[in-house]
Amino acid sequence: MSAKEFMEWSSQVFDEVMRASGVKRGVDKITRPIWSWALRNSLFPLHFGIACCALEMAAASAPRWDAERFGFVFRSSPRQCDVLLVNGWITSKLRPDLRRLYEQMPEPKWVVAMGECAISGGPWYDSYNVVQGVDTFIPVDIHIPGCPPRPEAMLDGFLKLQDKIRHSTKGTFLED
Amino acid sequence: MAEMWINMGPQHPMTHGLWNLRVKVDGETIIEAEPVVGYLHRGWEKLTENRTYPQIIPLSDRLCYGASMSWSHLYCLAVEELMGVEVPERAEYIRVIVLELQRIASHLMWIAAYGTDLGLLTGFTYAMRERELFLDLLQSVTGARITYNYPRIGGVRNDLPAEFERDCLRALDFFEKKLDEYELIYDGSKIFLMRTQDVGVLTPSDGMNLGVTGPNLRGSGVKVDLRKTDPYSVYDELEWDMCTHPDCDCYARYRVRMEEMRMSAYIVRQALSKMPPGPFRVKPPRNAPKRTAVARVEDPRGEGLMYVIGDGTDKPYRLKVRSPIFVSVSAVPAILRGYKVADVPAIMGSIDMCLGETDR
Ligand code: SF4
């Protein structure tokens, strides 16, 4: 038995024992709220301005709306982010890059589609170069309608995302 | 040292919008640059051929979201010329007021973004705070924050609300005091001065040959401002000065924009006091004659031009847009050559990119 195999085997046994003895459920129950609290209160959206709605994104992080009080800090590198905020129309040229950005983000990650363009193509619904909504190639969690949505709407969307995380995160320690 | 290409974009904190700057570097020095645009191309000009004339106004709002008002105004100017519509005088004054408020908001957005580029986060928060003041004013007139849909062919959609003059004057008084504060922050910051002075020099001859317009060209000391040199609306009835700066560098462009904000506030005050009563809108015809028309305006970013061909129906046969930033971007290789990679955000920030109109 090589060292690697031993590692695998031992962690399996550990897992089995925890499961069988019911310790896992207890640990999950204790850690679940902590995990989900930490996840939802430190959402780092990607600082990626596409079009008009990016201005409202900037306004939301400016003094009047101050998104940082809810824990949204815009980061510039997809490696440091867990929310992809799509705020504009997606053209055929942008589409592969956006997909790539999404794949570069570490798990767990969420996608917020902001504005009509990101939802369904918006005013450019009959354009030859605009993708009809970001959910055609990336799974979307929250849609924020508006053209552009006001910063309040954007913050509301992010609070909805927090709700969603609260309801969907299990204790990730020793996942079922 | 070996030369290599670096891609800055499409997702890069420097870009302010969606484009890609490829620079060829030798060590730290840029020897060649190549802007790649087109990430936002949505076939605007083609789309307009399937819309009736009034339907295009909201689309032209979304051409440049930093200055929506001036683009929908430009579109209305072009179509008014095509249809031969006379705009009532009150509407012209209202347009000048909202245009100048929009110019202030757009320059404030620029200053805020430039602050974050150069590490002046205080500047960002201050400028965004005052920008809300002007967005509130525009919202009280038009009902929206950045995409207004306000100018109409033959006037404007609605009159100014009651008490607008009082609110506007109050906001301007407050804002002019704050402008001094910005100058303290920006001009008092050694880092800002070091990163902008003598960086990104655009010589007047280069600027003119490459077709650069707007504050970028005025920052090179060239006296070109369509509001003065080819007046439209009622700009020739108002008294104001063109703002130029002879230094040709990033700092000069910053100074020009600061001065322009002051000048815009001055213009708004004048227009408010001179505004005549009367109707604010006339009814335009539904179909355009078989003709062509051209209109050009001084956008906050440079000279915008629209060329429209009517074919007797209620839809344009062709609508061509000349975007100031598309031209300025093509001057980027000439500006960037010889500077360091670390100067790229300072130089590109000073151009005031707006990709929506560039890619159309
Ligand atoms: S939804 Fe409207 S405001 Fe937002 S990016 Fe699209 S066109 Fe612009």
Structure description:
Chain A is mostly helical. Chain A has 2 domains: 7-40, no CATH class; 52-168, Rossmann fold (3-Layer(aba) Sandwich). Helix content of chain A is 45%, strand content 7%. In chain A, helix 5 links the parallel strand 2 and strand 3 (142-144). The relative contact order of chain A is 0.17. The model of chain A is unreliable at 171-176 (pLDDT under 50). By secondary structure, chain B is α+β, with helices and mostly antiparallel strands. Chain B has a single domain (44-324), classed as Cytochrome-c3 Hydrogenase, chain B (Orthogonal Bundle), CATH 1.10.645. In chain B, helix 4 (89-117) runs antiparallel to helix 11 and helix 5 (121-142) runs antiparallel to helix 6 (164-187). Chain B is globular. The two termini of chain B are 39 Å apart. Chain A binds chain B through residues 46-52, 54-56, 58-59, 62-64, 76, 78, 88-89, 91, 93-94, 97, 101, 123-124, 126-130, 147-148, 150, and chain B through 10-13, 16-18, 38-43, 46-47, 50, 58-59, 62, 65-66, 109, 112-113, 124-125, 128-129, 131-132, 135, 145-147, 355-356. The complex binds iron/sulfur cluster.
